[in-house]
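Run log // design_07
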């Protein structure tokens, strides 16, 4: 697995965080498959670290809903159903669409324009097929935009929803360029907000979230058609 190949991890950095990032990358790429049980010692061997930071990182991912502990075996990657996808999208739509309208009415042009570099980073990452950079920039853009509404708890709720849903399936779509259209919607949304077109911005956000939901579903289906990943836990 490319994302789990042995690599040098700096001692001075937090091993737990670096291991968690590597595991998230493997999830994105489809190298860790939903429903499969992976053992901490085997993952640790692939990463070139001890089993302890792997277990700690897996516990972090479990709290995010991405994996679940399996007694005496390891961790199983959580499977998302069509209903899960629908419910995540519904909740985000209920929160983010009206919040975008509120931001359009209250945020200054300077505040909105400060988000443009992030929006452009999303587009650039999609063009360069860098799915990890795409997700990082997308995450920062959406949360920074919502933060302009001034409700910290709202931002945290959306951040949690994104952790539970955004990592599955996009790696396979990255190879086909499917992320580019979704990336450009961030520029469109920002332009509408700067122009003060609140209703159009809400419609754009609603369409964008529906598009993301389709990407999740299509990405997951494509990943399932690909060559099965190495089942570390089943060896």
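design_07 sequence
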């Amino acid at each position: 697995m490319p994302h789990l190949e042995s690599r040098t991890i700096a001692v001075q950095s937090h091993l737990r965080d670096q291991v968690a990032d590597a595991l998230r990358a493997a999830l994105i790429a489809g190298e860790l498959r939903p429903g499969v049980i992976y053992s901490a010692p085997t993952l640790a061997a692939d990463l070139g670290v001890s089993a302890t930071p792997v277990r700690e990182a897996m516990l972090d991912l479990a709290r995010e809903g991405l994996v679940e502990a399996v007694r005496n075996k390891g961790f199983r990657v959580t499977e998302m159903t069509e209903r899960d996808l629908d419910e995540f999208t519904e909740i985000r739509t209920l929160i983010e669409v009206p919040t975008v309208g509120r931001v359009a009415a209250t945020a200054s042009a300077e505040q909105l324009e400060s988000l443009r570099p992030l929006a452009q980073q999303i587009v650039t990452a999609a063009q360069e097929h860098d799915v990890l950079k795409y997700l990082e920039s997308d995450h920062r853009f959406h949360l920074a935009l919502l933060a302009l509404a001034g409700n910290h708890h709202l931002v945290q709720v959306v951040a949690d929803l994104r952790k539970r849903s955004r990592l599955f399936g996009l790696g396979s779509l990255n190879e086909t360029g499917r992320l580019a259209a979704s990336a450009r919607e961030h520029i469109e949304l920002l332009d509408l907000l700067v122009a003060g077109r609140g209703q159009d911005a809400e419609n754009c956000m609603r369409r964008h979230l529906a598009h993301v939901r389709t990407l999740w579903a299509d990405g997951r289906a494509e990943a399932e058609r690909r060559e099965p990943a190495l089942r570390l836990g089943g060896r």
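Strands lie at 37-38, 67-70, 74-77.
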